[in-house]
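Q: Please design a sequence for this.
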């Protein structure tokens, strides 16, 4: 049975003191939930976040990692470095990584395979731009992203994959895909995986929605049968908002 997940992507926000303060508040207010709750602070605060949450049910995850094990990659972080400080899950392919840092499907495929080789779980992000949706090519775009990066994986590898659908036009814009649009895409993704692999894998992979999820819309989005939670951006930076979203799952 697939997991319900609420993951907060903090992006390039919160210094060390602010990170500690938010984690303390989240820990104190964390509701009783069957969902997995995750937070992704910035790299330099990951170790402190792991230490801070060692007695908490909240998992600390990374926002990105490099595909190489080590070497001359200035400014990059490897899977082993993350594992060494207790981080076992990584976000891969966020739309901002694709748009601002030139991450291609080929690069993302290498990152996913590296994560799998280290038994790490990947939250793999995908989604269409506004022009794709206007041109009615959004299903084609999403299918291509999934196939290029993930469909060379073995069936067993999917136990370590979480998917996150991000309509790019709804990230940080205040716009949100309607619950019906989210459900339509999530159902399409399951159908695509079932055709490439089998119904069991499609039914058991968790698919999160990411794109301006807020306390006001979370419950309706999460109520859809193929939406298994959210990858939360701005609302994850305020404890009360993030807790309200967790309660909505």
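A: Design:
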């Amino acid at each position: 049975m697939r997991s319900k997940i609420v993951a907060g992507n903090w992006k390039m926000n919160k210094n060390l003191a602010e990170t500690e303060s938010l984690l303390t508040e989240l820990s104190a207010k964390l509701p009783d939930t069957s969902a997995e709750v995750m937070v992704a602070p910035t790299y330099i605060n990951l170790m402190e976040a792991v230490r801070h949450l060692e007695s908490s049910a909240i998992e600390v995850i990374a926002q990105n990692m490099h595909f190489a094990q080590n070497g001359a990659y200035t400014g990059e972080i490897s899977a082993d470095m993350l594992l060494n400080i207790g981080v076992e899950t990584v976000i891969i392919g966020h739309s901002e990584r694709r748009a601002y840092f030139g991450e291609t499907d080929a690069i993302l495929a290498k990152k996913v395979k590296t994560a799998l080789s280290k038994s790490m779980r990947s939250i793999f992000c995908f989604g269409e731009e506004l022009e794709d949706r206007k041109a009615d090519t959004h299903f084609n775009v999403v299918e291509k992203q999934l196939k290029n990066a993930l469909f060379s994986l073995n069936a067993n590898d999917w136990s370590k994959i979480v998917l996150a659908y991000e309509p790019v036009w709804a990230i940080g814009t205040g716009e949100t895909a309607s619950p019906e649009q989210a459900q339509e895409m999530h159902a399409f993704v399951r159908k695509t995986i079932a055709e490439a692999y089998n119904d069991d894998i499609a039914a058991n992979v968790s698919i999160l929605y990411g794109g301006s999820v807020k306390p006001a819309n979370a419950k309706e989005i999460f109520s859809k049968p193929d939406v298994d939670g959210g990858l939360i951006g701005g609302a994850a930076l305020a404890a009360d908002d993030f807790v309200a979203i967790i309660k909505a799952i």
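Q: Thanks. Anything notable?
A: Strands lie at 5-9, 36-40, 59-60, 89-92, 121-126, 161-165, 207-209, 229-232. The radius of gyration is 17 Å.
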